[in-house]
Amino acid sequence: MSLRMANIPDPSLSLPPVGHQSAVEVANVGKVYGVRPVLRGISFSVPTGVSLALLGPNGAGKTTLLRALATLTTFTTGTASILGLDLRADAAQIRHIIGYVGHQPHLYDELTASENLLFFARMYGLPDGPRRTTELLERVGLRLKTSDRVRTLSRGQVQRLALARGILHDPAVLLLDEPDTGLDEDAAALLQTIINERQQRGQTTLFTTHQLDRALSLSTQSVVLVNGRLVYAGPAADLTPAEVRALYATSKRRTP
Amino acid sequence: MTFRLFWNQMLAILWKDLRCELRTRQVWISMAMFALLVLIVFNFAFDLRVDNKAAVAPGALWIAFVFASTLGLGRTITAEQEKGLMDRLLLCPVDRKAIYFAKLLGNLVFIGVVEVIAVPIFAVLYDLPVFTGGIIPIVVLGTIGIAALGTIFSAIAANTQAREVLLPLLLFPLLVPVVIAAVKATQALVNPVSGDAPWIGLIAAFDVIFLSISAVTFQYVIEE
């Protein structure tokens, strides 16, 4: 096992460079809500074309990290960039190249499935919005639900639609925050296919999940956070679910 | 960002807001009912004789507009904020001014529909000659003033716990100039007096100032 455990007081690990431009660079970032630190001096780099699983127990800071990378919030300290664009200075450009799916679907209940996708296609300025919408509804298995309002769809169907919205503009970097919430086996397989296809096309995906088996099988690299600190960054193949759980337990004991 | 994209995004947000409202009819119905109730209550509450009607009735009309507007203004951004939909919208590469103007236009449509219903009822209840060409610029400019300030302050209030209380507390004091000018302009319309102040000009100046300030500051209000 080549598990690389960080020195917890100073966790600054980087994924091994593989000769590509970095899709995501995070340098010593921290986030404080009030007086409570949520992220503490995290550094890592994600090469392009990599699927990265961001793992950690509840409250580890995964969602905060993804929200900050999605430009929804700012880091209190440190710097970060996506495909060379600075997160603070170039937020407007970054929004064109990232996709984000949160663990809440955030869709308009009173619009139909296709109206939701068409609306977001217009937000992204897609010239072929209607064609792309039809294609994606077919892709996520919602072709027969095209004209159904979102509030009439099941939780899993809504999550499929949120996934379709996330890849609507074929983003270079896709951020998925517990995208498997509410998905049935077919939809989970679809998610796996989407992540794999993106990787083959050289696109980068960062995702969080509590399904450790699925996370480690879907990803090529993984990052583990505990209590806002980075405790592992390295190849996903070097970790087993049991080792991840051990990391959670050990780091929780060592971190105040 | 090209103007065409800005325009398309603004229209898309407006279309979405109107579509959602047409399907739920939550805001329009409550606003219209509230405006009608205010007009009816004031009609009974005041002693409206011929000699004081022209002085009192325009005040009732504009109070009905302002109070009813507050109901709608409070919902346009808050509803999206509560469900996390505003965050999702902010994730899109959309100019924040496009969001502001779309919300503003949506509010203008909501308030406008209420006014189209309320003004004829006001004319009947208070028996005043408001159906002249002059009422249109007064109502349009006054409504723009209410919506311009209401949109920005509903965005500010949406981020707070006590949003229902905070919105009127912030909004009403700042609306005083536009309400006074609109009431005076409406009074002058139903009972013309020579040498009256240029109230319409005051409303227009108010609109220009607050539209400009709101459009520029909206980004800082809406983003974390």
Protein described:
In chain A, strand 4 and strand 5 form a beta hairpin. Chain A has 8 helices and 10 strands. Chain A is an alpha/beta fold. Chain B is mainly alpha-helical. Chain B has one domain. Helices cover 84% and strands 0% of the residues of chain B. In chain B, helix 1 (3-24) crosses helix 6 (96-126), helix 3 (50-76) packs parallel to helix 7 (135-158) and helix 7 packs antiparallel against helix 8. The longest helix of chain B has 31 residues, at 96-126. The model of chain B has no long low-confidence stretch (mean pLDDT 90). Chain A binds chain B through residues 70-74, 92-93, 95-96, 98, 100, 102, 104, 106-108, 110-111, 115, 119-120, 122-125, 149, and chain B through 1, 5, 8-9, 12-13, 15-16, 19-20, 23-24, 83-85, 87-94, 224.
Concise account of the structure shown:
The complex is a heterodimer of chains A (256) and B (224). Chain A has 256 residues and is α/β, with parallel strands linked by helices. Chain A has helices spanning 62-69, 91-97, 113-123, 129-139, 155-166, 185-200, 212-218, 241-254; strands at residues 22-33, 36-47, 51-55, 77-82, 85-86, 98-101, 173-177, 204-208, 221-226, 229-235.
Keywords:
heterodimer, A: 256 residues, alpha/beta, Rossmann fold, 6-stranded mixed β-sheet, 4-stranded antiparallel β-sheet, disordered N terminus, B: 224 residues, mainly alpha, 9 helices, 84% helix, globular
Measured as a percent range, the helix fraction of chain A is: 25-40%
Distance between the termini of chain B: 22 Å
Low-confidence stretches of chain A: 1-20
From the alpha-carbon coordinates, what is the Rg of chain B to the nearest angstrom? 18 Å
Q: Going across the biggest sheet of chain A, name each strand in turn.
A: 6-7-8-3-9-10
> Unreliable stretches of chain B, pLDDT < 50, 5 or more residues?
none
Fraction of residues in H or I helices of chain B: over 70%
Give Rg of chain A in angstroms.
Answer: 18 Å
* Number of DSSP E strands of chain A: 10
How many E-type strands of chain B? Answer: 0
Counting helices, strands and paired strands, the structural category of chain B is mainly alpha
How far apart are the termini of chain A? 27 Å
What is the fold named in CATH at topology level of chain A?
Answer: Rossmann fold
The top level CATH class name of chain A: Alpha Beta
- Based on the structure, what is the oligomeric state of the protein chains? heterodimer
Average pLDDT value of chain A? 88
